[in-house]
Write a structure and sequence with these properties.
- This protein has 3 domains: about 40 residues, no CATH class; about 100 residues, no CATH class; about 110 residues, Dna Topoisomerase Vi A Subunit, Chain: A, domain 2 (3-Layer(aba) Sandwich).
- It contains 10 helices and 9 strands.
């Protein structure tokens, strides 16, 4: 679904710092109910100005090791190559650029670790099980709930990861198009192969963004020409409802190439071809 042109009320919001409802009223646009987003954004801005201490980042667990094609990391690297469609030559760069880790021990044993970092501070992680791990739960994330500490080696996330965006430190500098995906591997594949075309990607850890994620996206909006939502094909029924939540950041829904069910299933060549479509998402 496309929306052409730029809405003037969004410029008003940026210039004078008013609410969405106020801006639409100023320009004489019909008022659509933005739910409680205005109230939440106001609260977030007030909290930011209040001088409330910022969350402290976590230390890396000792059993988390950097992804490598060598030694104990080989099994995880082979999963990334054979099951996820990357090249062996990509492994070192993936480890360096995205801080990917792995572990054979502890609560995240047999999982490939995606760190959730903002402004160089580690706020948590989510781990993808590899086939030999045998766990039916594909992803396991560090919880922010205190009562889960005993099951997480005593570690508790300072922030709910559903309040954050994956690869924030990579996407915060802007580009032509920011692709918003559901899962970590979707974002990894699109960002890694798309960045040379000025395409960046993040994930929201689900099919719909949280209010805090909406706010974070709104802060990045001026850094990109396009925002594109790219969900798995089996989530098409959710697409319109998700777009309605993201109308404040000019989201466009894009369909995957024919025959592709999941963004993370695209090959390097498919992503390079699809980059042209994403850049023209107007």
């Amino acid at each position: 679904m496309d929306h052409s042109g730029k809405a003037p009320f969004k410029l008003i919001m940026a210039l004078i710092g008013c609410s969405y409802t106020q801006a639409r009223s100023i320009v004489g646009a019909p008022i659509r109910d933005p739910g409680k987003l205005d109230d939440v954004i106001k609260a977030l801005r007030t909290e930011k100005k209040s001088g409330k201490p910022k969350p402290v980042g976590l230390d890396w667990p000792n059993n988390f090791k950097s992804l490598t094609i060598k030694g104990l990391g080989r099994e995880f690297a082979n999963y990334v190559v054979n099951d996820r469609g990357f090249s062996k030559n990509d492994i070192d760069r993936l480890a360096d650029d995205y801080l990917l880790k792995y572990t054979y021990t502890g609560p995240w044993k047999y999982r490939l670790i995606f760190p959730i970092v903002k402004d160089e501070l580690l706020f948590g992680w989510t781990g993808r099980i590899i086939p030999s791990g045998g766990d039916k739960a594909r992803y396991k994330s560090l919880s922010h709930h205190i009562d889960r500490a005993d099951t997480q080696d005593g570690i508790v996330a300072p922030i709910n990861i559903r309040s954050l965006l994956l690869f924030y430190d990579q996407i915060k500098y802007g580009g032509n198009t920011l692709v918003i995906t559901e899962g970590p591997f979707d974002a990894l594949k699109l960002d890694y192969y798309g960045k040379k075309f000025n395409i960046r990607a993040t994930c929201i850890f689900g099919a719909a963004p949280s209010t805090e994620q909406l706010y974070a996206l709104s802060q990045l909006r001026s850094m990109y020409t396009n925002f594109v939502l790219l969900l798995d094909n089996d989530k098409k029924m959710n697409a319109l409802s998700v777009e309605s939540k993201l109308f404040l950041v000019d989201i466009k829904i894009r369909q995957l190439p024919e025959g592709v069910e999941d963004p993370g299933d695209m090959t390097k060549k498919q992503i390079e071809s699809f980059a042209v479509v994403l850049r023209e998402a107007v």
